[in-house]
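[step 3/7] inverse_fold.run input=structure_tokens len=162
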């Protein structure tokens, strides 16, 4: 199976990235995690993206906050699918990172998940890889069914309490 590359702009983004790594682990999808910044280490970020396809990656998650150019900078250097996670920072509640990540110019797409949406970033990667992987697709179906069953359990409990 292809690997997922997870890049974060700073180790301060790790709590958000952990939601993605936990999700990938649960689905038994191989991944690598790195701290590369579009601004502080632009050469390393670019090198990762340029070599990602030949290094066995099938999709890349880029998590960054503030002026979050990481996902776009990675996407500029690969045609692998790139999923951006806008990370919430203290001043602008993540709106800064959301707009910086989502507003990509035509030709260089970044699939942007919700602010701090680490789990959905991993699920979207899994869905991309599952296009050519029936076993993974079955795991995703099972997860959907199990998540729905949990909601229906909550429905029963709440409904019974009134
Ligand atoms: C971004 O700036 C990082 O992705 C992080 O979300 C934010 C703050 O970084 P630190 O100052 O905590 O290293 O580049």
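[step 3/7] decode complete -> sequence:
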């Amino acid at each position: 199976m292809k690997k997922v590359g997870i890049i974060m702009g700073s180790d301060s983004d790790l709590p958000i990235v952990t939601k993605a790594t936990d999700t990938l682990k649960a689905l038994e999808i191989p991944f690598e995690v790195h701290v590369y910044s579009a601004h502080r280490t632009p050469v390393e970020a670019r090198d990762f993206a340029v070599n990602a396809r030949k290094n066995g990656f099938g999709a890349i998650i880029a998590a960054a906050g503030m002026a979050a150019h990481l996902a776009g900078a990675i996407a500029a250097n690969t045609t692998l699918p790139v999923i951006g996670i806008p990370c919430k920072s203290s001043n602008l509640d993540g709106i800064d990172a959301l707009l910086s990540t989502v507003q990509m110019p035509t030709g260089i797409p970044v699939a942007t998940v919700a602010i701090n949406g680490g789990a959905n970033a991993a699920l979207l990667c899994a869905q991309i890889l599952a296009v050519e992987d029936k076993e993974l697709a079955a795991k995703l179906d099972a997860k959907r069914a199990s998540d729905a069953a949990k909601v229906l359990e909550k429905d029963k409990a709440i409904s019974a309490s009134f």
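[step 4/7] annotate
The chain is about 45% helix and 15% strand.
Residues 9-10, 12-13, 37, 64-66, 87, 89 surround 5-O-phosphono-beta-D-ribofuranose (CB under 6 Å).
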